[in-house]
Design brief:
The chain is mainly beta. It has one domain (about 1-360): membrane protein fhac: a member of the omp85/tpsb transporter family (Porin). The chain contains 1 helix and 21 strands. The longest helix is centred in the N-terminal third of the chain and has 4 residues, at about 90. The model is unreliable at about 1-15 and about 25-30 (pLDDT under 50).
């Protein structure tokens, strides 16, 4: 859910109805429901409405269910369910023999944007099309120590592109880019994690490496391997509650003739908040985010951030020239079990073109 405009003013109204924590059972704390109704309007996606519901411990096993349902008059459709046993926050910083996480998601972006492939694409090359995404991820984890976690899992993903503009860039791409791409993969990662919280960390570091392999099999439309590495750092600057947070991510795809549906993306609500979703696409990417998070009043907090990123057609071409970047300002509303996030980003790409983005989502950027 997002609004992105090019060097212009916009009017946006966002209303978040307060969530209410409800304890179920005979004893307080046996189970918790935290609902968050959503009412939203902006000039890009129109009127949006939905709800987020977080349910903790209803089965008595420290498990959690996290459900998001959202629709908009502009054609956005976002439905997501995450089941975790035990819950992410409850197992953070502990030793545990086994955990399972199941994520089911469906997204439709009726007016998704395409600017071309590579770092040299221009905002003026923008095209619109419909992107439909279904995603299923099953992850098994073990906490070997309070800081070291290993994970393996399976990932099913299908992306369909359609409703292209007449004479668009897509018309000159291979047919696979203009249809549906379906892949099933296996992945494994190892994480060193000293954060004091999964939901709202104030100190600690994260070092993580991941390998995902999509085999060249009849069940997959394309085969390739994805490599990724994360670094995150959190530190209290001023007590109480002023926190510096830093994230760096590098990713690389190894494969031939990869379609648009599987390329790495820079831009949008979870990467660069002053750039349109999928502003840059290619086979290798690097991203950096920095934030200062500070309290304002009770559960309300503020954020000042900086984002920078770039893509390449291969990782060995990495360089420090002509990165896109943006400044970001935001508000955070802290619930017991999740964070509500509102951001505005002021971006500039490698050609000096300026862009503004307004975003609403859940959870910290990282």
């Amino acid at each position: 859910m997002r609004l992105v405009s090019r060097g212009c003013f916009f009017l946006s109204l966002l209303i978040i109805l307060p969530g209410v924590s409800v304890c179920l059972g005979q004893d307080s704390g046996e189970a918790t429901i935290e609902p968050m109704p959503i009412l939203m309007y902006d000039t890009d996606v129109g009127f949006g409405y939905g709800a987020k519901v977080f349910l903790l411990g209803s089965l008595g096993r420290n498990e959690s269910f996290d459900l998001i349902v959202f629709n908009s008059t502009g054609g956005e459709r976002w439905y997501k369910l995450v089941f975790s046993l035990p819950d992410f926050e409850l197992r953070q910083g502990t030793v545990y023999p086994f955990s399972v996480d199941l994520s089911l998601a469906y997204n439709t972006f009726k007016k998704n944007r395409f600017f071309g492939i590579g770092n040299q694409t221009r905002f003026s090359d923008e095209e619109r099309y419909t992107k439909e995404l279904s995603d299923v991820r099953l992850t098994f984890s073990r906490g070997f120590t309070p800081q070291m976690v290993g994970q393996v899992g399976f990932h099913y993903r299908t992306v369909r592109n359609y409703n292209f503009e007449i004479g668009s860039i897509f018309e000159n791409l291979a047919p696979l880019n203009r249809s549906r791409v379906t892949n099933t993969s296996i992945f494994a990662n190892f994480r060193y994690d000293t954060r004091d919280s999964f939901i709202n960390p104030s100190h600690g570091i994260v070092l993580q490496g991941e390998v995902e392999h999509i085999p060249d099999a009849d069940s997959n439309d394309v085969g390739y391997t994805r490599y990724a590495a994360w670094f995150q750092y959190y530190q209290v600057l001023v007590k109480p509650g002023v926190v510096f947070a830093l994230r760096a991510i590098g990713q690389d795809l190894e494969g031939d003739d990869l379609p648009v549906q599987v390329l790495l993306s820079i831009g949008g609500v979870n990467t660069m908040r002053g750039m349109a979703q999928d502003r840059f696409l290619d086979s290798a990417s690097a991203l950096m985010n920095a934030e200062v998070r500070f309290p304002l009043y009770r559960r309300l907090g503020g954020v000042v951030g900086f984002d920078a990123g770039k893509v390449w057609n291969m990782s060995r071409k990495f360089d420090l020239e002509r990165w896109a970047s943006n400044l970001a300002l935001g508000l955070r509303f802290y619930m017991e079990t999740f964070v509500v996030r509102v951001d505005i980003g002021f971006g500039q790409d490698a050609f000096g073109e300026k862009n503004t983005g307004f975003y609403f989502n859940f959870g910290h950027l990282f």
